[in-house]
Amino acid sequence: MFKGYFYLLFVLFLVKGNDVIAQDSVLVFRTLDSAKRLPADTGKVKWLIEKGKSLGRYFDKQGAENPFFQEAILLSQRIKYAYGLFNAYNEAGSAKRNKSEYLLAADYHQKAVKYAEEARNDLWLCIALNNTGVDYRRMDDQLEKAFDYHFRALQLAEKINDVRNICVAINSIGNINLSTEKYAEAINHFEKALELEKQSKNNLGVAINLGNIGYAYQGLKRLDLAIEYYKKSLAVNQQLNNSIGLAICYNSLGSAYQEKKDYAQALEYLNKALEVNGNVDDKVHVAESYLNIAKLWSLQGKHEEARKYFMQSINLSQSWRFKYLLMEGYKALAKDYKASGDFKRSMEAMEKSLVYKDSLISEQSSLAWAQTQAIYDVDRKDNQIKSLEHDKQLGELRTKRNVVYTLSMAGFLVMLIIGGFFYIRHRNLETNKQTLQLELRSLRAQMNPHFIFNSLSSIHRFIWSNNQEEASDYLTKFSRLMRMILDNTQYTFISLNKELESLRLYLDLEKLRCNDVFEYQINVEDDINEEEVMIPPMIIQPYVENAIWHGLVHKSGKGMLDIAVTLKGKTLTCTVTDNGIGRKKAIEIKEKKGQTHRSMGMKVTEGRIDLIRKINNTKEADVTIIDLEDETGKALGTKVTLILPVEFIF
């Protein structure tokens, strides 16, 4: 019985309380009527759900469906609002659970799970899974399903690090263990939840888990430990001034002391529970306190005192139609009469208990049937709504099709004339563009043998001047670079990150071959998305190669190569700056060696840039080379600025 107290407090902790205003039919339906004036958007859905929550008690008393939730679901389906569907079904399920309609509650919450999954929102899914688990936990024969839902919620909550849902799931699994008398496992889960609640500074959660641990120890017959935890929970509830929590703790302490046969202490705590229950609106707690005190007196053989409290519990239960308590009350009274030897009254009391038991079974069967029928009606209504919405959309499409058909026929002749003119013009432009692209492809194809020839020469020199292990490492890196170059040069455009990746690999090889005579750095502007920006492949490498072999390798001291990439609009600027010997000195060295031919890579690249300028019909594609000098005219290096039009993936 006392497990039910902590379970009730836990449910109250899960469900946010709503301020319920004084309501009457005129006010409620005037509020519903005012919804018609609101625009059919997400704001209206949220308004309907909030009103449905605040006015829920009115519809519960009337035994009617909450039209605010139903309207929110209908509108959310019409405007395809995923959060509205999740939220409306979730709140409707919680409302059904509060009325003990657990089958309907589980059906609504499972729909909330479905829409949370469709929206791929892990937080929504955690909430819906935990709520569905609570629904099944309320049904005594569905604990396995309850565990599955809470376990899924726990795994997902841990993945997204949502402490609130982690606590809910762990506490619920602990309560399932309590129900199946796996007390040690229950304690383990409650202690984990308790630690998280302490870290979150959630005192209500702390009080709940302390009480739950106490109940588990009571189940293990470790009564002193149970009392210790009940008292800890009581202290937290006193700080919170939580009347329901206080009543639960007092009743639990009374139960524990009763098991210890310390009847004086048990009676003291049960009377305190009775006193606190006077501050609680729900009279079921008062009736239950009377019943507990009556049982205590009966155990001590004080039958007159016991029967006084039995009758107070029975009278209150009859006034408020608490059939379960009437069944339990008459059953306990029959036991008391039997203990005192009054078998006739014992039989009469037992007969009344059985009448209420039969009534409860009948009501439960009727309720289960009504809920099953309601689930069927809800699903049928949902399908009808979807069907009507589909028919409406088809009608709108037919109307639009007719309008479009008429306008299309009217515009076809005009477009035919204009289209013919532009087609001829476009065909001429396209022919010219294809010619230019063939030239560009031819030049791009020339880059592969040129680059491979230069690289093989480098490998040959490296093998002769270095040991086999280093040569093998160099050859491995070279093969990677070759694969990347061959892949990249198949395309007219590649992403900037691929171009820079191959450039870094090339620079690492050249740096290794040149015995680290230079360092390099590549700086890309922070606001550039390297995966989205598309540039022609192998467009930067020839200028980098030129900077190394005609500027940096002849420099005395450490060389530095700086590559900077910026983007403005659809124009990319790449600056290659070296602190080498300069172009003038490089030309002198070439002349001394008798090398007067112009770099093949530079020549091909300039041709590619010229064709890119023509294809894109822009003057922005350009290359400028500046000799860097100090005030005395001494060469400080070379700066190459490459300007290119770019494409974007999106």
From TrEMBL:
The signal peptide, as residue positions, is: none
Protein name according to UniProt:
Tetratricopeptide repeat protein
Q: Which windows of the sequence hold TPR repeats?
A: 167-200, 207-240, 247-280, 287-320
Q: Which UniProt keywords apply?
A: Membrane, TPR repeat, Transmembrane, Transmembrane helix
Pfam families per the UniProt record, alphabetical = His_kinase, TPR_10, TPR_12, TPR_8
Which Gene Ontology terms cover its molecular function?
phosphorelay sensor kinase activity
Membrane-spanning parts? 403-424
Origin: domain of life: Bacteria
**PROSITE patterns, A to Z:** TPR, TPR_REGION
Q: Which organism is it from?
A: Chitinophaga agri
In terms of PANTHER family, this protein maps to: SENSOR HISTIDINE KINASE YPDA
Domain (Signal transduction histidine kinase internal region): give its ranges: 439-516
**GO CC terms for this protein?**
membrane
